[in-house]
Amino acid sequence: QVQLVESGGGLVQAGGSLRLSCTASRIIFSLYGMAWYRQAPGKQREFVADITTSGSTNYTASVQGRFTIFRDNAKNTVYLQMNSLKPEDTAVYYCNRRLLDLRNAWNWGQGTQVTVSS
Asked: Which of 68, 87, 108, 109 could form a disulfide with 4 if both were Cys (CB 3.0 to 4.6 A apart)?
């Protein structure tokens, strides 16, 4: 069973930066596209960014140009560099595999809380 462990969240002022990490175990990490998702209070979980096995990336419009997803297959880790953070980025951030349907997700990790103050 895949295990996902997210870290790196915290409290930051608007305009600040954070780098999130997600380490996966019990899989051959390099064989999977990976993605970041987030869930704000009272809202559904939403897509943020993904990265294919070959390194191609895709972002939701609201984070384009501010966030960067990248991966280190040797460390079984996917990262999300978040710059120019805004209060609306406040959410719990999760990683999982790259998906079209979240019903096919691996078991979710605990996530990491990102709080951006204005």
From this structure: 109
